[in-house]
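Box 3.1 A note on notation
Throughout this textbook, protein chains are presented in two layers. The first layer is the amino acid sequence; the second is a token string describing backbone geometry. Keep the layers aligned when reading.
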Amino acid sequence: MSTTDKFSQTFTVTGMTCGHCVASVTEEVQEIAGVEDVAVDLPTGAVTVTSAAPLDESAVRAAVEEAGYQLA
């Protein structure tokens, strides 16, 4: 595996209703070590995280909860 390999994982977050919600979740998830990009689809609640290595779901869950939301 080369160092340029990326991992993409999608999580579903419940409770987001607006752009501020998206910004809050994005900000918290971006603070997880190794995260390179966070893309949030507000209508579906899908949060796609691109990282250098696979992320532990508990770390993502903690970040989402810190933002005030829940993983589905």
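The first strand starts at residue 7 and ends at 14. The longest helix spans residues 19-30.
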